[in-house]
Amino acid sequence: MRRVRATYNGAVIAESDRTIVVEGNHYFPPEDVRAQYLVDSERTTRCVWKGRASYKTVEVDGERAVDAAWFYPSPTPLARRVKGHYAFWRGVHVQEV
Prior knowledge:
Strands 5-6-7-8 form a 4-stranded antiparallel beta sheet, with no helix packed on it. It has strands at residues 4-8, 11-16, 20-22, 25-27, 38-47, 51-60, 63-71, 86-88, 93-96. Helices cover 0% and strands 55% of the residues. It has one domain (4-96): Domain of unknown function (DUF427) (Metal Binding Protein, Guanine Nucleotide Exchange Factor, Chain A), CATH 2.170.150.40. A hairpin with a 2-residue loop joins strand 3 and strand 4 (25-27). By secondary structure, it is an all-beta fold.
């Protein structure tokens, strides 16, 4: 697998060659995500087959992408592979490098 990078406002938020692709989204292992750019969020949503998603806001140099990172802390058995892994959207650019 190729290396995948997530960037926002010029900063690398995550980089990994171990992402898991689900429904077209790259899920990054937590150890490959730079937590200093993530800010807690109260938002949660529910996916029928993956379970409850929690969110983080991505912040770099005062610029914020609200709720742009999501993860499943306790996914359903069908989605157990992505437990704790992060996916990104809302202005966070994810690409193979």
